């Protein structure tokens, strides 16, 4: 057992229109300003697991047991891979600004990198007004990204017709999102935090802003600026098609033909790879789900909602959290069993998302059936045809489907060690056999599992136990406990 078992925090809000959406565990409540307990401390099994993985990756950058290669050969990859896209890094200037920002804050600890307020607040004299403290933080952030626009409340009121409810385009657990149009004609989405006290909203606002500040990739949401007078609001470029979740599980599903789904899967993978590896800091998103993928008019996916995202310092193997935040249906087993957060927890959520894209089913359906529990037997029995969204008919590319199915099944492996990294996933999804075979060509060790891995797998992540636990945790979390 690793660390303390996380406590479930049940979501309180009862948005009627969100009933069929995956339930996000209340960040609002968890944030209720008692800082979450997060620690570096790893118990031996978590530590060993990560250590084993790192050792293995040093020796051999292919999949831990050769599954990838085997699977790759089982499918037909005749269809041409899509053009390779490069993950772009933010500019050097941005990097320097970010370093300066932290120097200015005289950082002592990176314990809660996703939440700026914790190490900012003590630096600001208590007698100063909130707006003065916020201004201090924001002026540093604005130094970091000078292209952001500071909106005043009247700009945003005008843009959204006084926050007319007609203009609401999204309702999350913590914010209402309004569509708006600026005077120069630019379409925007205004994220207005609506849950919790002013303190809590400020914490959430700064936390999201602090992460998104240095995220710059074509598959991540684009921040235009923000408003801090009165209520705090984040302003993004509008993604005209809304979220992947609303399309996939709504009446416009027919817009998502196979080629669009494939493109979306690749784009999300590119975005996640960027967050994990190409950004200046390792960012773990922690809430990858269909509702947090926005779509531009060209069906380019953009990862949004960095409200839970964490920066993971290079030397850390993982975070250990004691409270659940995120969305049911997307939780990795090591997260709900041990509170472990790292890249592989995002990989698991991405696997669930891939299953949604393939099957058209939600992560947790109206009968509370978990998509992983539903799909596992079909994946194990290779009943691929039974997985495919019936609304697609026969209209899909067999090779591309094969890539998505293989990737999904690896991403939802119960043992994190057996899940590929985003780098490998990007390769897998494109069906690039050449790259996957590269390590063998270099004469690396054959891909065998070690005894301890076998033990660990058998002992801690026994498949039946895993599925039972998955079901049980979901029941507890959703209040269905008998
Ligand atoms: N830039 C945008 N363009 C179009 N729609 C958007 C945009 N940003 C957000 N939305 C819509 O608003 C919804 C909620 O946004 P977001 O996920 O940021 O809010 P939240 O309160 O943090 O949600 P969650 O419950 O996941 O925490 C999204 O699912 C999406 O439908």
Characterize the biggest β-sheet: 6 strands, mixed
Mean pLDDT: 72
Let me know the number of strands.
Answer: 15
- The CATH topology of one domain is what? Transferase(Phosphotransferase), domain 1
Give the N-terminus to C-terminus distance in angstroms: 25 Å
Counting H and I runs of at least 4 residues, what is the number of helices? Answer: 19
CATH C-level name of one domain = Mainly Alpha
Radius of gyration: 22 Å
Strand content: 5-15%
Helix vs. strand class: alpha+beta
Portion of residues within helices: 40-55%
Catalytic activity: L-seryl-[protein] + ATP = O-phospho-L-seryl-[protein] + ADP + H(+); L-threonyl-[protein] + ATP = O-phospho-L-threonyl-[protein] + ADP + H(+)
Keywords: ATP-binding, Cytoplasm, Kinase, Nucleotide-binding, Phosphoprotein, Serine/threonine-protein kinase, Transferase
Family: Belongs to the protein kinase superfamily.
Pfam families: PK_Tyr_Ser-Thr
């Amino acid at each position: 057992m690793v660390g303390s078992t996380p406590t479930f925090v049940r979501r309180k809000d009862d948005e009627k229109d969100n009933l069929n959406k995956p339930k996000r565990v209340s960040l609002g409540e968890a944030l209720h300003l008692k800082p979450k307990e997060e620690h570096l401390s790893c118990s031996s099994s978590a530590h060993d697991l990560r250590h084993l993985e790192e050792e293995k990756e040093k020796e051999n950058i292919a999949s831990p047991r050769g599954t990838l290669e085997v699977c790759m050969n089982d499918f037909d990859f005749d269809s041409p891979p899509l053009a390779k896209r490069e993950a772009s890094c933010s500019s050097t200037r941005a990097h320097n600004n970010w370093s300066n920002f932290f120097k200015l804050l005289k950082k002592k600890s990176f314990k809660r990198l996703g939440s700026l307020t914790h190490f900012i607040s003590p630096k600001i004299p208590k007698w100063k007004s909130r707006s003065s403290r916020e201004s201090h933080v924001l002026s540093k952030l604005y130094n970091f990204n000078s292209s952001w626009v500071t909106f005043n409340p009247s700009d945003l009121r005008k843009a959204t017709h006084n926050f007319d409810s007609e203009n609401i385009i999204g309702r999350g657990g913590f914010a209402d999102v309004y569509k708006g149009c600026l005077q120069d004609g630019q379409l925007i989405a205004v994220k207005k935090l609506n849950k919790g006290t002013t303190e809590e909203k400020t914490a959430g606002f700064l936390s999201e802003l602090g992460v998104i500040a240095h995220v710059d990739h074509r598959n991540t949401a684009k921040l235009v600026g923000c408003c801090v007078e009165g209520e705090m609001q984040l302003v993004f470029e509008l993604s005209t098609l809304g979220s992947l979740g609303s399309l996939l599980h709504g009446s416009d599903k027919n817009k998502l033909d196979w080629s669009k789904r494939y493109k979306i899967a690749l784009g999300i993978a590119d975005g996640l790879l960027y967050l994990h590896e190409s950004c200046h800091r390792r960012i773990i998103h922690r809430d990858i789900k269909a509702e947090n993928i926005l779509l531009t008019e060209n069906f380019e996916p953009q990862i949004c909602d960095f409200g839970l995202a964490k920066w993971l310092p290079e030397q850390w193997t993982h975070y250990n959290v004691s409270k659940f935040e995120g969305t049911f249906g997307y939780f990795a087993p090591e997260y709900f069993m041990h509170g472990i957060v790292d890249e592989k927890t995002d990989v698991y959520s991405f696997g669930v998302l891939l299953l949604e894209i393939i099957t058209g089913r939600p992560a947790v359906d109206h009968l509370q059936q978990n998509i992983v529990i539903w799909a596992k037997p079909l994946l194990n029995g290779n009943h691929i045809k039974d997985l495919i969204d019936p609304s697609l008919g026969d209209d899909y590319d067999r090779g591309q489907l094969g890539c998505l199915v293989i990737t999904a099944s690896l991403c939802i492996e119960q043992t994190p060690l057996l899940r590929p990294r985003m780098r490998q996933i990007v390769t897998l999804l494109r069906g690039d056999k050449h790259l996957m075979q590269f390590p063998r060509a270099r004469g690396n060790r054959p891909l065998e599992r070690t005894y301890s891995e076998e033990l660990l797998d058998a002992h801690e992540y026994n498949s039946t136990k895993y599925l039972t636990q998955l079901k049980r945790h979901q029941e507890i979390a959703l209040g269905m406990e008998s």
